[in-house]
Amino acid sequence: MPELPEAEVAAAQLRTGTVGARVRECWVGRSDIVREGYQTLSWYQASRIEAVQRHGKSVVLSFSRGGETRFLVAELGMTGLLLFHSAPARYPQHTHFVMHLTECREPELRYWNPRRFGRLYLLDASGLERYLRRRFGYEPLTMTRQEFTKLMASCRGRLKALLMHQQKIAGIGNIYANEILFRAGLHPSRVASRVKPDTINRLYDVIRDVLLEAVEFGGSSVRDYFAPDGTPGTYRLFHRVYGKAGAPCPNRCGATVRRVMEERSSFICPTCQPRSGRRQ
DNA sequence: AGCTCTTCCTGAAAGC
DNA sequence: TGCTTTCAGGAAGAGC
Q: What DSSP character marks residue A191?
């Protein structure tokens, strides 16, 4: 399930593999995979890929043709992948979009998504601006400590809900929310606005640390995630609690990691992540 | 504002 | 063994 680190890794590979490319042809398997701008598809033919960026969990490609710029936004959802020609797709029937490229390293860019949670958007500059504004809050790697502190103070909901609320902080999903909260020693159901300043500082650092480490290791390959070149991410090996119900707490506190159905499925150490503010 | 419920979708896991 | 049922899970939208 691609979250920020996986989208970041995908964007980085697309940058090296496809920037500068000339689009030879676009193929769409099922038109409903393009949620917006399907009628502009022909514009992209003969355009050039100028840049690739990540916003939240989405990957955004910029194309230019005749002085005009348009964009392709790929939402990866739970099971979506961007893949190069060389990467094997286990269920080829779930490839919904293919861009054939020339004048770059990769001859083909595919969008693969078996469950189809997540779509593609073909947008112009104002469309992209609206898309980003409506969907994404702070980028966790660029928000300041002050911005995060304000956000925490203004949010009376639960901490894990805030971390995963894309319009507030963009890019964190269930895996990384669990890992972040464990490392910060915070229970997912703590009320965000009641967290003390010292703890907010610690949480701010942990968010960055976890996400940057995950990027460094190529993201987490849980189930079917692969980078565009087909390689899996290895950060899963460093998960401390996600998917580890029944294992001893990595802090060696003696307790056992538990899976609880609070704020989606959460993996917590009941000792190291107490409901009250006091750390043991 | 924020919580819950529903919808989307299909492979995998559980159940029989 | 093999068929059937259940179930995650990100995000949007409705309703409260």
A: B
